[in-house]
Amino acid sequence: MFEAIPSKDGWYIARAKLNDGSEIDLLRQGRPVDWKKPAFPGRMYPNHFWQKLFREMAYYDAQGFQLLRAPVAEFLCRDWNARHPPEKQVAEFEFIYCMENKAEPANGPGRQIAREQLVHLDLNEP
Prior knowledge:
Layout: E1 10-18, E2 23-25, H1 48-57, H2 69-82, E3 90-100, E4 113-122
Antiparallel strand pairs: 1-2, 1-3, 3-4
């Protein structure tokens, strides 16, 4: 009854492969993909509504926020494509949830990062 609530302490990577072959992270304003955990993952989102959405999408539960993963991924791609020329538009997209292995020591050579692909979109398919 008083057991700790299970928590998923992780972060998202919104990896987009562009038509010109480059790879970027749409959640980090088009910067190159960086697998390291951000110091404050919640600051990646524009407001608390987005923070809650991304926090809840990490779980598979009865409330069903996991059903919003594909629509959010599609929105991120549409939003990026609307603001960039054809060669810089998204050709392929992956939504990946990352978590550090807490069993490894924090001061060790580097914790292993578990990656879970949540969504894959191929925007060049007919």
